[in-house]
Specification:
186 residues; alpha+beta; Aminopeptidase; 8-stranded mixed beta sheet; 6 helices; 31% helix
């Protein structure tokens, strides 16, 4: 099955293409965008966007991740949104969990665009992917990301410490939303 597309009133969530490489490098490479993310390096290395985009189809085919470009008709790609999927054991049951992640180009902040994209992807995750739970995490200083999570229906759960591959330990605020709670809010 091909990577899906999702339409909202203002946005088109679609698979990335290699023609998006320069736009990803430009937007994700901004210092403010990288500062709000655990995974985006700054400066953004040349070639990283192409390798990242090339990995998306395999991740989708293997049911590991759905990674989509957030686009507006006028500007094209303005950000990225994803669900990284894994099975987790919770109280004697296996639950399929999606870890929601996103970034948005600096010129598009404060317009409700990421909340719109997140709500659409959350609905897709529950209704089409059969997820039992969606979680998201943000750095303590990235309060705007926490607002997106709350406006998208996720609830604060706790603070965790994540150990990065380079050995650094970083605090993250974790939010979650279970399918029955999402369904009740619809």
């Amino acid at each position: 099955m091909p990577i899906p597309e999702i339409h909202t009133p203002r946005l088109w969530l679609r698979p990335f293409a290699l023609t998006d490489v320069r736009r990803v490098e430009e937007l994700a490479g901004h210092a403010d965008v990288a500062a709000g993310s655990v995974l985006i390096p700054h400066p953004y290395p040349r070639g990283l966007a192409a390798r990242w985009i090339e990995s998306h189809e395999g991740a989708w085919r293997e049911n590991r991740a759905l990674i989509l470009a957030v686009c507006r008709a006028e500007e094209g790609v303005i950000g990225s949104i994803s669900l990284l999927m894994e099975e987790q054991r919770q109280h004697q049951h296996l639950k399929l969990t999606g870890l929601l992640g996103y970034w948005l180009g600096r010129p598009y902040w404060g317009q409700g665009l990421m909340t719109e994209a997140a709500r659409a992807l959350i609905e897709f995750g529950f209704c089409e992917l059969g997820l039992d739970r969606i979680e998201a995490q943000h750095l303590p200083h990235n309060l705007a990301s926490g607002r997106v999570m709350r406006k998208s229906g996720l609830c604060y759960q706790d603070q965790i410490i994540e150990t990065m591959p380079d050995g650094r330990s970083i605090p993250l605020y974790r939010y979650c939303l279970d399918y029955p709670d999402w369904l009740a809010s619809q």
